Amino acid sequence: MPDTTTTRDRKEVRDYIRTIADFPHEGILFRDVTTLFADPRGFRMAVDQMIHAWAGQQIDRVVGLEARGFILGGAIAHQLSLGFVPIRKKGKLPATTIAESYTLEYGEAVVEIHDDAIRPGEKVLLVDDLLATGGTAAAGIRLVERLGGSVMGCGFVVDLPDLGGRAKLEALGMDVHAICAYEGL
User: Fold this and answer.
1) 25-64 pLDDT tens trace
2) Does residue 105 have an active-site annotation?
3) What are the residue boundaries of the Phosphoribosyltransferase domain, all occurrences included (predicted)?
4) Distance between CA 153 and CA 174 in Å, rounded?
5) Annotated catalytic residue: which of 8, 10, 26, 105?
6) Which of 88, 83, 84 is nearest to 99 (CA)?
7) How far is CA 160 from CA 44, 97, 119, 126, 132, in A?
């Protein structure tokens, strides 16, 4: 029987990701996942692949990092029939929070989580769109652990391995999965 699969049917997640040169600074190749999210086939493929990486593991909650991690985390939580917890930039959550600071290339940033968002002993999957230096994800892991939760692993659509984020998270004992990787900055 002849192969009736079209080129469109053979697309991979990375085929839906747009690259924008010199954003936000000259010399940077920005991996824009908004084009992935806008395409129903690509978005479903990404969510399915992220879920597949954690098949068979007990997970109690999905935690998403601001902001694109909210889009992925909400969809993953829905598919797994789990609750979703946002980790946000400082000052964005309305109830009592705990905060964690982390280093950026040119300064420091702070993320927060509600102090009642994770119960002691809960197993958490942390997700975001892109893994670069790992600073935001590491801060998110520390917040979950401070609340008594256990991060089972970290899932990303894109890994930028040259920036060292995967190595940083693995050094923290994390199981890290990314759908695709791009060399360079």
Assistant:
1) 899 999 999 999 999 999 999 999 999 999 999 999 999 9
2) yes
3) 53-160
4) 5
5) 105
6) 88
7) 22, 30, 32, 17, 5
C-beta neighbour count of 55 within 10 angstroms: 6
Q: Active site residue: 68, 88, 112, 122, which one? A: 68
pTM for this model (two decimals): 0.93
**68 in catalytic set:** yes
Domains along the sequence of the chain with CATH: 57-181 (3.40.50.2020)
Strand ranges, E, within the chain? 18-21, 29-32, 61-65, 83-89, 97-104, 107-114, 123-131, 150-159, 176-181
- Pull the structure tokens for residue 62: 């999905």
In angstroms, the CA 185 to CA 177 distance is 19
CA distance 59 to 182: 28
